[in-house]
Amino acid sequence: MSPDLFFLLASLLFSLGLVGVVSRRNLFVVYMSIELMLSSINLILATLSKLLGDGSGSVMALLLIAVIAAEAALFLAIIVHLYRENRTVDSDTFNDLSEVK
Known about the structure:
By secondary structure, this protein is an all-alpha fold. The protein has helices spanning 3-23, 27-52, 56-86.
């Protein structure tokens, strides 16, 4: 397949993720949109690695997968903690730092 199709797919996935981050209020949807954006970056790295004949893009993609796994654990732990305190995952309710006292 042509690398242009992979770049087009990665651009489409990144755009969908960006729209999800900007337009949604549910923290789970925001989290999944961030994961979609990171996966599109992995696709670009793997495509560039194959196109250039160099393995460094694949190594960076593997390292990014490890970072994504650590980020997933932390983000889900934060969501569980926030849900236990507030009984909601709506991002508009979490404005504790913006309140002036």
